[in-house]
């Protein structure tokens, strides 16, 4: 068996989603709006060639046509559509019930697909774009152009209609807090099946994951290599630079990024790595088949968890949404949810 075949087998390991009882691969790659689309295309090809089967796309990243090219190449090689788990996201400029169908079908056309495996709300805050390409609208003062009338109930109802038509197999949330998850869960006919959280060794979201498990919602780890808005200190530098992570990496002869992905992988936490988080995507995924973390390694890495202090406290790449009523980072979202708070 060749090295590339071994990697493909490793990266096809997965979990069964809590609600849908659907097989989901453990490793994924995500597009990023801040990176050149040509670079994104190259890194997507590298990841898929190493057996990565989750592709996390976002209308707002303007990279869906690049994903289409990568997928077409795999179809020509004989890959089955069913082997891939494709995620699309409703942009924040589409956070109205009337706009859900339009933006989903734009994404399907750009991706060259009849359906996506999961359709997510990109974020709970609504934005008012000048047109469908104005995904990060700003006013004259340079602040986000907020839609203060966002109604997540209307948005979710429209997403449920698309689900019933077979255009998306699952529905999910991104950049939402636990109270928002609970609120949508309570009113949903088709409850959320997946929720993306900033899970990494600094922020393992233990209580949040337990709560999600009680709702049969599967967590997906975004930013598994560390919170991009983290303010490094001597005690807690950038996660990939932490002495514990580097020590374990040197022990196994791999990169710190590989250690951090393997740490989540061995806990069967689905992990989505953004294309801009690493330079050599192919090498990152290939190395995961070369080693396993031992019990003492896992304990050392587990001790890095800061119990919520290292979680995201703002949208990445979109500051200034704090005045919106659905802004998700304004309070201890786990405590608010467990006490029954609806904010």
- Pattern of helices and strands: HEEEHEHEHEEEHEHEHEHHEHHH
Residue fraction in strands = 5-15%
Number of helices: 12
Helix content: 25-40%
- What distance separates the N and C termini? 54 Å
Strand order of the largest sheet: 3-4-5-6-9-10-11-12
> How would you name the oligomeric state of the polypeptide chains in this document?
single chain
The tally of beta strands, per DSSP, is: 12
**Cα gyration radius (Å):** 19 Å
Unreliable stretches (pLDDT < 50, length at least 5) are 1-11, 333-343
- Which of globular, elongated, flat, extended, rod-shaped describes the shape? globular
Major beta sheet summary:
8 strands, parallel, barrel
Average residue-wise pLDDT: 90
Protein structure class? alpha/beta
Structural description of this entry:
- The chain is globular and about 55 Å long.
- Mean pLDDT is 90; it is low at 1-11 and 333-343.
- It has helices at residues 3-11, 37-49, 64-76, 100-111, 152-164, 178-187, 206-214, 243-252, 256-265, 281-287, 295-302, 333-338, and strands at 14-16, 23-25, 27-30, 54-56, 85-90, 116-121, 126-127, 146-147, 168-174, 194-197, 218-222, 270-274.
- The longest helix has 13 residues, at 37-49.
- Helix 7 links the parallel strand 10 and strand 11.
- It is built from 12 helices and 12 strands.
- By secondary structure, it is α/β, with parallel strands linked by helices.
- Strands 3-4-5-6-9-10-11-12 form an 8-stranded parallel barrel, surrounded by 4 helices.
- The N and C termini lie far apart (54 Å).
- It is 35% helix and 15% strand.
